[in-house]
Amino acid sequence: MRLAVFGYGSLASPASAAETLGRPVEISEPLRLPGWNRRWSTIRDNHKVEKSFAPASGDGAIEWCLGLNLEPAPGSEGPNGVLVEISEAEADRLDLREMRYERVDPGEEVAAEHGFDRVIAYAARPEHVASAPPPGGAVIIAAYLETVEAAFEALGPGQLDLFRETTGPPPVDPVEAVLVDHSIPPGNPTSW
Q1: Which of 49, 95, 98, 157 could be disulfide-bonded to 122 (CB atoms 3.0-4.6 Å)?
Q2: What predicted TM-score, i.e. pTM, was given to this entire model?
């Protein structure tokens, strides 16, 4: 049974996915995920999670961190992203990395069209979906945004522009940050 994960954020980066999977990662050609939207709507409390960050400048504090999310949007052309072939054991490792998310089924058509038996994606659990606008003190960790944008730039001409078009601008400022405390499971990125 062939299984893949749809990478629409940091998992579109082969280096980032490889950090979790513990092996070199090949990604598919870019594709769109119809019926879904990508938004800056995943939120985590910077003081109550497995990793806490402080501004690299040393000024102030980070209260909330925003990340990308996948949300159902019937009729949408969908965000761009990639497929990464994984095993069931690797999906379990991704579950640890994506602890604020739950597996969702983006549709049998995507799997069949790309030669997989099943495709999964990750969408934020309801308790980790940010209100609009996000709470005061929310930031995007700059290293996360840089990793995601570099991944889409590397996908080829127009892919970064399409990422930005199908995501919209970040609703809060990106902030250079440093990791100050963590209990991160092995394989999870430490930069954001």
Answers
A1: 98
A2: 0.94
